[in-house]
Predict the 3D structure of the following.
Amino acid sequence: MPIYQKSPKALLLDKINAANLAPRQLTELNCTFETPTTIPTTAEGFNTEVVVRGIQYRGYTGSVKFRYRRLDLALLFRNTNLVADAPGITTLTQALPNINARYGLNLTMPGLVDGPIVENVPFVMKATPENLMYIGEVQGRYLNAGYRLQDVLYQRNLDTLDHPISSSDIATGYKSAGMLAFGIDFTPESNIIEALVDGPLGTGVNYTSGATAALMQTLVGLGQPAWDFTAARIDHYGQGVVAKANPNFGHCAVISNIVDNNVRGPIYLHYNLL
């Protein structure tokens, strides 16, 4: 209904200026409207009187009373259903931008009686006595359609989907140990993984205790490629700590700092405790 996209004052001023050949057009800068008065509907269909008063020193003084017809909100929506569908609406004030956009209107506060709005529960939109354009009331409904994607997703250029290891390493023939081990359930080997302490694999207690050797033997036995563990280290984490870990497991051991001529890391060992 684009005819009603102007404000009530602007629409009335257009009608006054179109019906009168005044020395200068009336605008919101040189006149004001008093509170309209409802009158019995005349034969011409008028149901409202309003006084327009000139603003001294801006071109006009004095006042004139006009008769016109305010539009009943029920009549305005007689051929359509009043619906608000934007997310997060709890009051009529919050719903007005959505209603205006849907129906090509310019409904504003004040001018309507504010009130709560609840999803899937009918609400009433009622004009106040001060409303210059509308009278009456109409029933509407709030149906939360959710956020429009184009209104909330502004970044349209996404990061590329990359292989876990660099393209140059792939071209050279390196294997991604992380990909090869990612889908394996290491729960049956959890005692071997838990025997390792956080720290280096090629030196210290993990190496001297034989825990590193047991881990490497286990990985090769599961079909994983052998790799040089000299510079590598292992760290244990609980569920949800490692962003790239499989969330279906309660624990993840991450082997990093792998320096090898055939394999690239890191490696994620997913398991649950027995």
User: Anything to note?
Assistant: Residues 31-69 form one domain. The first strand starts at residue 31 and ends at 33.
